[in-house]
Design goal:
CATH topology of the largest domain: 2-enoyl-CoA Hydratase, Chain A, domain 1
Number of helices: 19
Structural class: alpha+beta
Strand content: 15-25%
Helix content: 40-55%
Distance between the termini: 105 Å
Strand order of the largest sheet: 18-15-14-11-10-9-20
């Protein structure tokens, strides 16, 4: 009996000792990550920061924004408590301590526990949709609630909005089903309201289960990423599990949709659509979209707001051939459901493609989805060699001009963009690259030969980035061609990043703390040959064609703490003397757009989108909400009417690309490509611009 008592006495001490050891190990590892991260940023970043009160306040502001961007949990007293430490975060960072982080973790965890009761109480009884209430749907415009009572009221309105939106979805689905069959039983508004509340309740039950799994390490990773984001938007910390996912990409037995995603505040944002992937081929998902829900086919969608990125990726991935439905919020605030069939990357879709556009003149068209290269030196394809081949084929067709389409091209190989620019110019500088120390490195095309010397236009948009911007800038600076864009500027990413493991920063005596993860660091900056950076400002097209989003601030400028635009000395180059006037081309294009009703619709759409973006307050009155949804759909219908073939231009394949009609897969892919070309209003106007060039 005595021995048993002694054993029972020792066991709790052993548990306490084990817990203490675990805490010390965790604490040491967190400090090690902090120190290794800051050491790498100090040594490697293009614009290293002095960790002081200014940085401390920036970290505080961005951290609060990401901790509770939707203002769902924290109240003003919490913010007041945390704000007392907004000038001590730099001390934490320098010492490898986590006083501010620990305090924020304690507060947010308590508030999440309290919030569990808010939504269950609200959803337990019907809503009155006859009242004239409104709700602000943009978290950035909201203020933190003054008290718990105010927060409960905010939750009530939020739940009411969610239920109202769900009723609207269910009514639309019910009406569509009725159109197909007379036997469909129509549910009353009361029944739909009750069903909607049940669905929203399930959504938030699942949401809080996910929040419960969001542990200290997840929050700490977010905290470290806030620190790196203060340097610039593309500098990131990868926790060990995130680094593994980064390396794996979309490989493995499961297939994805080919969209690169990023956590932004409470949301998952689409940052890139990879060429040749299901998203690229489907066409509706765009850079800048926010993913709100993910559904497996026709199953009930899962709310992914506030969900960790890795969990969202797991929901989107699935077996080849299966359908995933994404509910996304567009930049104008409209909500769209996008169905995508999971599949592998079709490599042919990533490569340069060309065809002949036969009208007043014969115009050659080259579409380049990305600046690809054989990075491993295994004899693979490179975009510069491929574009050269396409140009030679177009010359055989005796084209009067060439259009190079770089819309939605996010960049890629630096060497290839230098070689590609050289296909159109005599030898000379193409881009300047600068590290934080020393003079700029001028990258030149050393080859005096020119593959194509005729009229040239390059098409860009707000998603044309990095290498695409280098190409457009070089052609513009040399006055070698006309840049035609559907936005005031291209994306504005004029920086280069590299990934470094943090483990080498650890002394051998602390190897037990591995792995620490990795950091992606911005190390270089691109400059045009005229000396201006492509960073932030991007490239301003010579001629701008309006699209529905051209009045919005998109690209690098909408990100937190982007590196500034600046300029350095111009490289030595000689401008060409084109036999056309850009001013006259622009005037002719403007006149055509004014007389073209389709461009009038686009201009109206752009103004509407800007207004909707600025006005994010939604009515919670049923009749007003439904009327507003009908108005949205009617206006969207006008855009759908633009999706028709444009006459006056014949799309023809090149003789060198002829293939047998028996290749049915090739026939279908080619027909789909041609069909898209025939409906492209921007390409059609670019052809008109080319017709005006001598």
């Amino acid at each position: 009996m005595t021995k048993n008592k002694k054993f029972l006495f020792i066991l709790p001490l052993a548990i306490v000792a084990l817990a203490s050891f675990t805490y010390i190990f965790q604490s040491d590892k967190e400090t090690a990550i902090d120190q290794a991260l800051m050491q790498n940023l100090k040594m490697l970043h293009y614009a290293p920061l002095e960790i002081n009160d200014v940085v401390s306040e920036k970290v505080y502001n961005l951290y609060i924004k990401r901790l509770d961007g939707g203002k769902k949990f924290l109240i003003e007293p919490d913010i007041d408590e945390l704000k007392k430490m907004n000038h001590s975060i730099d001390d934490d960072i320098n010492k490898g301590e986590f006083n501010f982080f620990d305090k924020s973790l304690e507060i947010i965890n308590n508030r999440i526990e309290e919030a569990k009761t808010y939504y269950t109480d609200v959803l337990s009884k019907p809503f009155d949709f006859t009242k004239d209430e409104t709700v602000e749907t943009d978290g950035e415009k909201l203020k933190f609630s003054k008290s718990k009572e105010d927060l409960k009221e905010a939750w009530r309105k939020s739940m009411k909005y969610n239920v109202l939106a769900k009723i609207s979805e269910m009514m639309e689905a019910q009406n569509k089903a009725k159109e197909k069959s007379d036997t469909v039983k129509i549910k009353s508004e009361q029944v739909l309201e009750a069903d909607a509340r049940k669905k929203v309740l399930k959504t938030y039950d699942d949401y809080f289960k996910r929040l419960k799994k969001f542990n200290r390490n997840d929050r700490l990773s977010m905290y470290f990423n806030v620190i790196t984001s203060i340097y610039d938007p593309h500098t990131e910390y990868f926790a060990p599990k995130d680094k593994a996912a980064f390396d794996a990409g979309m490989s493995g037995q499961f297939y994805g949709i080919g969209a690169q995603l990023q956590e932004k505040d409470d949301y998952i944002k689409v940052t890139n659509i990879i060429a040749g992937t299901p998203s690229y081929r489907q066409g509706q998902l765009k850079v800048g979209d926010f993913i709100l829900k993910v559904a497996q086919g026709a199953d009930e969608p899962v709310e992914v707001v506030d969900m960790p990125l890795e969990d969202v990726v797991q929901l989107i991935r699935g077996k080849k051939g299966t359908e995933v439905r994404l509910t996304v919020k567009k930049p104008d605030g409209s909500i769209v459901v996008i169905p995508i069939i999971r599949d592998i990357v079709v490599m042919e879709d990533t490569f340069a493609q060309s065809l002949l556009l036969k009208g007043k003149k014969n115009i050659g068209y080259i579409k380049l989805p990305e600046f690809y290269d054989d990075f491993n030196g295994t004899g693979g394809r490179s975009c510069s060699r491929d574009v050269k081949k396409e140009l030679e084929k177009l010359k055989e067709e005796k084209v009067d001009g060439v259009i190079l389409d770089l819309r939605n091209n996010g960049g890629g190989s630096l060497n290839d963009v230098i070689e590609m620019a050289g296909l159109f110019i005599d030898k000379g500088p193409v881009v300047q690259i600068k590290t934080r120390a020393g003079a700029a490195d001028i990258k030149e095309d050393p080859d005096p030969s020119i593959t194509y010397s005729g009229p040239l236009s390059i098409m860009v948009n707000s998603n044309s980035a990095s290498a695409s911007e280098i190409m457009a800038a070089a052609i513009q600076d040399y006055r070698r061609g006309v840049i035609v864009g559907t936005s005031p500027t291209t994306f504005g990413k004029g920086t280069v990043q590299r990934v470094y493991e943090l483990d080498p920063s650890l002394p051998a005596s602390m190897s037990n703390l591995k792995p620490l993860g990795a950091v992606k660091v911005t190390m270089q900056k691109f400059y045009r040959i005229n000396g201006g950076a492509t960073q932030l400002k991007g490239v301003t097209p010579d001629i701008i064609l309006p699209d529905p989003y051209y009045l919005l601030d998109l690209g690098e400028k909408e990100m937190d703490y982007p590196l500034a635009w600046d300029e350095i000395a111009s490289a030595k180059y000689k401008e060409l003397k084109p036999d056309y006037s850009v001013e006259k081309l622009r005037a002719n294009s403007t006149a055509r757009m004014k007389s073209n009703p389709s461009f009038g619709v686009l201009e109206e759409a752009a103004k509407r989108v800007k207004k909707q973006k600025d006005s994010s307050v939604v009515s919670l009155n049923f009749d007003k909400y439904i009327a507003e949804q009908k108005r949205f759909k009617a206006e969207s219908k006008k855009m759908e009417n633009l999706d028709k073939e444009i006459g006056g231009v014949e799309v023809i394949g090149l003789k060198a690309d002829a293939f047998p009609a028996s290749d049915t897969l090739k026939v279908k892919k080619t027909n789909d490509f041609y069909k898209a070309i025939k409906k492209d209003i921007y390409l059609n106007e670019t052809i008109n611009i080319m017709n005006d060039m001598k």
